[in-house]
Amino acid sequence: MMPGTFATLTIDEKVDYGYFLTDGEERVLLHKSEIIGEIEEGEKIEVFFVLDAQDRLYATMKKPLITEGTYAWVDVVDVVEDMGAFVNIALSKDALVDRDHLPFLREVWPEVGDKLFCTLKVSGNGRFFTRLATEDIMKPYFQMADREMFNKEVTGTVYRMIVAGSFIITEEGYKGFIHSSQRTVEPRLGETVTGRVIDVKEDGTINVSLLPRKQDALSVDAERVYAYMQARGGAMPFNDKSDPEDIKEQFQLSKAAFKRALGHLMKQGRVYQKDGWTYFKEQTEQ
């Protein structure tokens, strides 16, 4: 009887807090909280072995989502700064993805509700840990994308991160790469993101952009500029001839993007320019 393994045992004795099971030589407790369905003495049942907080072996009829050598998507249920991320593996105790196996940058650690593709690891002392799937493990799960996917929207989960960007596996099973230039914020490990296919490679993998399409980006940029003016009472000391560095510092936009946003607002009749300033349409001249 080893933690992390299954066995079929005989129900040997009923006690107030559950049952004792036996393999003919050793006995182990099946607590009543670990029972599924109706059982009775003399019956043979399959159980999984776990250690409790006092390092005592116990049996459960609950089947874990992952075991050693098997992989599945598991939900992050807690994140502890100096430990790592705990995931729900369908047992009474959650399993830990150690911080050493999470990204170096804390801000891209998974959050509660994110999903990780993991396997179970049992330490020498019987403790449960989880390990993230490597690229080799992920390979059999990938599907080949065809050129028809170009410019289509896809949703996927981040399973691996490198300096240049993030790898996702989409709902269809496509392997996607999000280059750092194709995002405004780096997604978390385990985060589900939706983006647009900007390239389909010969090997069937895809490149994905999380940036809005040009027409959507225009609206977003215009609203950013408008909100800035709103905070200033409806006027700002910027126009389409302002210094590019000043624009970049204030709005995090290129001068070209700023001019497009400003032109969009002017075309809508929401703002006008005068003497180097831009005003709300209803704003009186300063």
UniProtKB/TrEMBL annotation:
<dbReference type="InterPro" id="IPR003029">
    <property type="entry name" value="S1_domain"/>
</dbReference>
<comment type="similarity">
    <text>Belongs to the CvfB family.</text>
</comment>
<dbReference type="InterPro" id="IPR014464">
    <property type="entry name" value="CvfB_fam"/>
</dbReference>
<feature type="domain" description="S1 motif">
    <location>
        <begin position="151"/>
        <end position="211"/>
    </location>
</feature>
<dbReference type="Pfam" id="PF21191">
    <property type="entry name" value="CvfB_1st"/>
</dbReference>
<protein>
    <recommendedName>
        <fullName>S1 motif domain-containing protein</fullName>
    </recommendedName>
</protein>
<dbReference type="Pfam" id="PF21543">
    <property type="entry name" value="CvfB_2nd"/>
</dbReference>
<dbReference type="InterPro" id="IPR012340">
    <property type="entry name" value="NA-bd_OB-fold"/>
</dbReference>
<dbReference type="InterPro" id="IPR048588">
    <property type="entry name" value="CvfB_S1_2nd"/>
</dbReference>
<dbReference type="Pfam" id="PF17783">
    <property type="entry name" value="WHD_CvfB"/>
</dbReference>
<dbReference type="InterPro" id="IPR036388">
    <property type="entry name" value="WH-like_DNA-bd_sf"/>
</dbReference>
<dbReference type="InterPro" id="IPR048587">
    <property type="entry name" value="CvfB_S1_3rd"/>
</dbReference>
<dbReference type="InterPro" id="IPR040764">
    <property type="entry name" value="CvfB_WH"/>
</dbReference>
<dbReference type="Pfam" id="PF13509">
    <property type="entry name" value="S1_2"/>
</dbReference>
<dbReference type="InterPro" id="IPR039566">
    <property type="entry name" value="CvfB_S1_st"/>
</dbReference>
